[in-house]
Amino acid sequence: MQTSAVPAAIAALLDICRNAPGLDGVTVVDGPPTVDMSDADLVAVGWAPGGDGGAELVQDFAYAGARSRDEDFSVTFWVESWSGDDDIAARRARAFELLAAIETAIRATGPNPEAPTLGGAVLWAHLTRAQLQQIATDQGARVGITGTVTCRARI
Length: 155
Prior knowledge:
The chain has helices at residues 6-19, 88-106; strands at residues 27-30, 41-45, 55-61, 69-82, 124-137, 140-154. By secondary structure, the protein is of the alpha+beta class. Strands 1, 2, 3, 4, 5 and 6 form a six-stranded mixed beta sheet that branches. The model has no long low-confidence stretch (mean pLDDT 90).
């Protein structure tokens, strides 16, 4: 018996991001980046800089008898664009393109009707929050967005 749908949801979200058409050529990592952070574009699933955690969950009984539980949880992710120049507007536009690619990949569409279930890992999932961060450094502009995918599962 599984105690949480979080691991399966994160694995599915990673797979979806790694195969999303709008994320071709983007480095997608599981959790905190251990790769070269100088990549132009990055998606980290289950992590955000300075964040409190990769996922947060709450469970309650689904029915009387305590045989199944409803689980509501959120998975944090980070998208980042960096180019080494000072053009924050271009980096911001690119970061929002990355965010849009993730949202599109988990939204139900004609060719992808099962997307909101993260391939069956959850009952539903959708993008619910995002926070923009813009940083000017001596190595150029770096723009990132912390995002939250909120899910419901029955376990």
